[in-house]
Structures are given as C-alpha cells and as structure tokens.
Design a protein that fits this description.
With 349 residues, this protein is α/β, with parallel strands linked by helices. Helices cover 48% and strands 15% of the residues. Strand 7, helix 8 and strand 8 form a beta-alpha-beta unit. Helix 1 runs parallel beside helix 2, helix 2 packs parallel to helix 4 and helix 7 packs across helix 10. The chain is elongated. The relative contact order is 0.12.
Length: 349
C-alpha cells in the first residue's frame, strides 16, 4: 500500500520504501505506473536528481509518456577519481551517458561539471543551464562574527590553540584519511594544533582506527553532525577539504561566509570562487605535501588567514543568488526545457 505525504500546497511525496538500493528503480517505476492507472496522472515534466538510478527511472518514464526530461548533475561523475572508486561507479557513468543524451535539458551546479561535460564530447542537448545550490547567506549575516556556541566550543577544546575543521559525511570520496595524514605531518612541528571532525557515515570506524594507529588520539575529536555547523566554522582557524571529487561542495561556501579560511583540493567550486594564494589555498587532489605546507603556513602566519577569509567572504557573498532569483532561474529552466520538446532517442537509431 502506497503512503503519500503532502509536503506543499500541491506537492506530494511517495517514498519507495525499497528493501535495498538495487530495488530503487523498479519501485519508483511501479509508483509512477500506479499513479497513472489510479489517478490518471501523466507528467508534463520529469526532473531527476542525478543521471544514474533516478535518471534511469526518468529515462524509462520519458520513453513511456513522452514527457519533457530534465536531468540534474550534482557531482563531477566524469572525474577519473569517481570512476576509480568502484565498478558500480563505472556502470553509473555508462548509465549517465544514456540518460543525459535523452534529456531535453540538463541542470548543472558548477562550472567544473560544465567543463567535464564539454571535454566528454558526448552529443548532448544544448539546453544546459548552470544553477548553483541555493545558500541562505542571511543565516551567516544574522549570526555575526562570533556567537556564544563558538565561544563555548573554544572553551571546550581549550587544549587546541589552532583548530582544523572537517565537516563531511564519512565516505570514501571525502578522503578524510588524507586530512589525518596532513595533521600527522604538522602536529609535532606546531604545538596546540587539533582537528575537529564533524559528521558521520560508513567510514567512521575506519577513521577512528587510523587515529589510534597513527597516534593522533590527543589531536583529534569526532563530533556528530549538527544543524548549528556555523558555530564550528566560526570557532575554527581553518577549514580543510580533502575530497577526491565534488560537484559543488556547499561546505566551502559556508566556511567562507563564516569567515573561516579554506584549504582545499581542486574540486567542486574551487575553480569558480577560489584563487590559490589570494583568498585561500588550493592543492591538487591527493597532494598531502601541498596541503600540509599550506595549513602550516596559516598556522605560522595567522594574519594571512584573516586576509583570505575577508576576501573569500566578500567575493562569494556578492556572487550568490537570493531565494527569489534562484526560484526564477529554476522556473525558467523548466519552461525552456519543455519548449525543446521530446529529444530523439539516439540509442534506437
């Protein structure tokens, strides 16, 4: 029995409640056909969160109903690091090629993804629109330079005079062991350095094991994910991102808006908002030597961090869309998507 949940004035959600990820596609297709048979519901527009499993559902429904098909891309799946992660990711790239070549329009969230698509030389719709993730910058404006929670965090971790912050889901692509290697490289050289890792995920046990094995227990604290992540940004001296690939990386935007200096690998929106040595530090993916050197420099030159934070906050704050502009862009993307009409399925030629 399907249970729907009304989440807006005329918006309903139908969870698949699948027993495993392998049943997502089958169950989603079954819901769509049930809606057609029982409520005579045939969509004018199908929008999919990714070009993989949900994209495949959209592709199948597009073939069934002839609807407009929008595929969204939120990760840089054409990065070699994405394909290297698993055999399943290699299969996902193959799925993505098929779904994207059938799309009436494609929504991407960063210039990096746009570059990857261009370099792929796939035959795609020309209706590709860049709409970044919506960020509520007013939250950061209202919170001020520092808050009571940030001060309390500083008192809680008073053993650390310099805090390196990680905020992420604990998955392989976040590459958090690399951050621990950075800490191991600099911990003995600079007294008072500590790392706070905020988040959770399947890699947590492995990360805790590495901390013990590498003798970093006195330098590392794990904290569960919190909705008040802004206070952690404000309490930290640097935000460190070590991901193998990202489509956007919202945490970089949030850290910058909270005036926290950033050291990151060259993923996500770093090519749009960050200039190495000007408003932050950017290193090649997996380059532990570069990351260690950059973090060490911010420890040795605290004023440099303040300069980076100020520049990044100003640049990013000015470039972000407000909610009304964002919704207008989103609405326009749907309208132009349906103006294109149904794309010919090149796989049937």
């Amino acid at each position: 029995h399907l249970q729907d949940t009304q989440i807006g004035t005329n918006v309903w959600a139908y969870p698949t409640n699948s027993v495993s990820r392998w049943a997502y596609v089958r169950d989603a297709l079954a819901i769509a056909m049930w809606l057609k048979d029982t409520k005579n519901f045939i969509p004018n527009l199908i929008t999919c969160q990714d070009p993989f499993e949900t994209g495949w559902v959209g592709y199948r429904l597009w073939k069934k109903f002839g609807s407009c098909l929008q595929i969204q891309i939120h990760t840089d799946f054409l990065s070699k690091e994405f394909r290297k992660r698993s055999l399943f990711n290699k299969v996902r790239v193959i799925m993505a090629k098929r779904t994207l070549m059938a799309a009436s329009c494609i929504r991407i969230v960063s210039k990096r993804i746009q570059t990857s698509l261009t370099e792929s030389k796939w035959t795609l719709t020309r209706n590709i629109v860049l709409i970044p993730i919506l960020v509520n910058k007013e939250l950061f404006v209202r919170s001020g330079a520092i808050d009571a929670v940030s001060l309390e965090l500083r008192r809680k971790y008073k053993q650390f005079s310099f805090i390196i912050l990680i905020a992420a889901r604990f998955t392989k692509e976040k590459n958090i062991p690399l951050a621990l290697r950075v800490l191991r490289n600099i911990a003995e050289e600079f007294s008072g350095v500590g790392m706070i890792i905020v988040g959770d995920g399947p890699e947590k046990g492995r990360l805790q094991g590495l901390v013990k094995r590498w003798g970093l227990s006195k330098y590392v604290v794990f904290e569960p994910w919190t909705e008040n992540i802004i206070s952690y940004y404000k309490a930290a001296n640097v935000f460190l991102l070590t991901s193998l690939y990202e489509g956007y990386s919202l945490v970089l935007i949030e850290a910058a808006l909270a005036s926290c200096p950033v050291v990151a690998t060259a993923v996500g929106i770093t090519d749009t908002y960050m200039e190495d040595g000007v408003n932050g530090f950017v290193c090649p993916v997996n380059d532990v030597r570069c990351l260690s050197k950059k973090v060490a420099r911010l420890i040795a030159e605290p004023n440099l961090g303040h300069v980076f934070a100020s520049r990044a906050r100003e640049q990013i704050s000015e470039s972000l869309h407000d909610k009304d502009t964002y919704l207008k862009l989103y609405s326009q993307s749907w309208q132009t998507c349906c103006e294109v009409g149904k794309v010919k399925d090149v796989w049937e030629e």
